[in-house]
Amino acid sequence: MHRRREIESKLKGETLGRRGLLRRYEGREQLRIAPNVNVVKIGGHGIVDYGAPVLKPLASEIGALSRDHQMLIVTGGGVRVRHILDIGLDLGMPTGVLAELSGKVSEQNAIMMSVLLSEYGGARIHSPDLLELPMLLKMGILPVTHGTPPYGLFESPPDIGMIPPHRTDTGAFLIAEVLGAKSCILMKNVDGLFTSNPLTDPHAELIEEIRAYEILDMEMDDLVLEEKVVEMLPHAKAVREIQIINGHLPGMLTRALKGERIGTIIKA
């Protein structure tokens, strides 16, 4: 009989899936790599696609804020993601291939934002550069990265349909979580999360504060952010709330970074 080879450790002989083992490590404090950084996600569809009238004032505001606040700017995809997904879905592309294709667009937006922010030290970084963030920030760099999480071909199948469930909101949240960030702010083209779509329903009401499980219980037909973020938030170790604000209104990011409870706060 062959005996399993082991190295002496506290995990010796474990399958890494035993519930008792997992509970042993529940509640342990994890290292916060960048505890003072604010992860600011700029929506592709809601912000970038509007071009200069929205992006230039926002870039100026971000640049001014970068003197007093550490930030990591994360970009979304937008209308071009919808275009490539439309073609890919018609062709029957697997979900993993759709994720690989759509991720290229948020990278393009990251390049444009980094150039737009260049006078303030803006520099485009890649996913592997996230561990260099403390050094980059100390050098006065304003880092910009894309929000598509690097699942790519390994994207998990969605509950419904074929569209990749982990997109740029999810990527921004996961970046904030692994960094142990101070905050995670999602900038959209609406004031926050509403009871229904405020762009089509004049009676939609803003939800100023809500818990993740309450959103899931509501089973809303459409959300202003990706549902995967809401599902993951209760399990987060570092990021215990997400703030959604309107990126079309000058000064909103300034107020959010000052700690004002504006827009919508989603709590774990």
Outline the structure in words.
With 268 residues, this protein is α/β, with parallel strands linked by helices. The protein has a single domain, classed as Carbamate kinase (3-Layer(aba) Sandwich), CATH 3.40.1160. An eight-stranded mixed β-sheet has the order 3-4-2-1-5-7-8-6. α2 links the parallel β1 and β2. α3 packs antiparallel against α4. The protein starts with 18 loop residues before the first helix and ends with a strand.
Task: Tell me the layout of helices and strands.
Layout: H1 19-24, E1 37-42, H2 52-65, E2 70-75, H3 79-90, H4 95-116, E3 122-124, H5 133-138, E4 142-146, H6 168-179, E5 183-188, E6 209-211, H7 212-218, H8 227-232, E7 241-246, H9 252-257, E8 264-267
Parallel strand pairs: 1-2, 1-5, 2-4, 3-4, 5-7, 6-8
Antiparallel strand pairs: 7-8
Helix pairs in contact: 3-4
Organism: Methanocalculus chunghsingensis
GO cellular component, one term: cytoplasm
Protein name: Uridylate kinase
